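yo

u said u wanted the structure for the complex thing, so here. seqs first:
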Amino acid sequence: MCKKVLICSGKGGVGKTTVAANLSLALCAAGYKVIAADCDYTLNNLEIAFNLENTVKYGIADCLSGRVFLGGALYPVAKHLRNNPNGGSLFLLSSHGCPFEKSELSETLSLCSKLADYIIIDSRAGQTEELDTVASIATDAIIVTTPHIAAIRDADKVAATLDRYELDSVSLAVNRVRADHIENSKAPAPSEISSLIRVPLSATLPEDDEINLSATVSPFVKSRSQEAYKMFALLTANGSGEVYQCETARKSGIMSRFKELFN
Ligand SMILES: Nc1ncnc2c1ncn2[C@@H]1O[C@H](COP(=O)(O)OP(=O)(O)OP(=O)(O)O)[C@@H](O)[C@H]1O
Ligand SMILES: [Mg+2]
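structre next:
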């Protein structure tokens, strides 16, 4: 049965598109059939993450209009992975910058679900109408945040919104984590953020210059995030497993300041 996993956040720029792209690649490398669906038509950066911005001609809105069959709007990502020995594959379904109706998205993703084990849905930041649309279609959701106070508070608000939907799971991915900041009490540890907003942790993703400096996601690059995404994919697929640890011991202090804001 295909899982439709919504990648969302309260605050913009926390790494949803990066997470959607890398998680899709990691699931594909683990042998799953994956469709990465870009549902953020305002920015549609997933095309750029996969280096397909000059290739994509059709998007979600075209699929049911008769302009193209679904297969014509699915673009292979990282062709060497398409027929990898594990049987994994990865295709991009783009919004191509065009708005779509809820019914169009629902029907297109329902067709996609016959072809994939996972549909990873990149979405627009914030408490928008689009969040309601994708949350009502998804089976699971992953809220992305960074360890910054504004991002955490906004993640908390999105978690409350997601409570309204019948999702099989809602979990938290903390992105851009720096062990030195945790050690120096400049930032809370991912486990603390998870307890604070009461959403289980499914990923700790390190601050990574290779991600920051590269506009595209490459499965060839051996970045320090690779192990973190491998564990993230296994946990997403199995529902249990270990979260990557990029944190070490922390000194108390910062959490009391965060807790005050949430009480
Ligand atoms: N772990 C990381 N380490 C370093 N830089 C990162 C990391 N994750 C994301 N970034 C950088 O942060 C920026 C924002 O990432 P991204 O576009 O994925 O965020 P987003 O949440 O999708 O943004 P938007 O809300 O605008 O759609 C990008 O420049 C990206 O390269
Ligand atoms: Mg984005």
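The first helix runs from residue 16 to 29. Residues 16-17, 40, 43, 45, 122 surround magnesium ion (ligand 2) (CB under 6 Å).
cya
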